[in-house]
Amino acid sequence: MTLNETIARLRAGHLMVRDAEEWDELSTDLERAYGSNDDELFEQLHPQFLQSWRTVTRYVLRDTFDAAGIAVTDPSHPWGIAILSANGTSCEPLLCRSEETGIEKAGAADGGLQLLTFADAMTHYTDCLTLLFDEPDH
């Protein structure tokens, strides 16, 4: 399977679960709950948000990743989708800006949590996948 085919299936798999606006709305609601210290709402949305991304990657896209020779394992980062490995290389697409370190409350000085939009998450995911292919599509 080529890089472009894998990326197309990745996007389609996530859009089968929610459209881009729904992904963005969930991300915005979670970020807003985090920023307003609404711990109850945060605790309600956080697992739903992460589990949705992780379930699509782990189960819906299983055949796609198998066909591309990509192994999928549990993420190490609290906002990671999964660890993807192929050809001796591993990467972990994240759902937040890379400088975020965890789910703990960030101080006001660093601006708090910044989750990615669906489009940005797909771009980051694509960048990760590109690292795993020996020869990118032309």
Shape: elongated
The biggest sheet amounts to:
3 strands, antiparallel
Rg for CA atoms: 15 Å
Helix and strand element order: HHHHEEEH
* Helix content percent band: 40-55%
The pLDDT mean sits at: 88
Derived from helix and strand composition plus strand pairing, the structural class reads mainly alpha
Strand content: 5-15%
User: Order of strands across the widest beta sheet?
Assistant: 1-2-3
As residue ranges, the low-confidence spans are 100-110
Q: How far is it from the N-terminal to the C-terminal residue, by CA? A: 14 Å
DSSP helix count?
5
Number of strands: 3
Task: Describe what you observe in this structure.
The protein is mainly alpha-helical. Helix content is 54%, strand content 7%. It has five helices and three strands; from the N terminus they run H-H-H-H-E-E-E-H. The protein has helices at 3-17, 20-35, 39-60, 62-68, 118-132; strands at 71-73, 83-86, 89-91. The chain has a three-stranded antiparallel β-sheet with strand order 1-2-3, covered by helices on one side. Strand 2 and strand 3 form a beta hairpin. It is elongated. Residues 100-110 have low confidence and may be disordered.
Keywords:
138 residues, mainly alpha, three-stranded antiparallel beta sheet, 5 helices, 3 strands
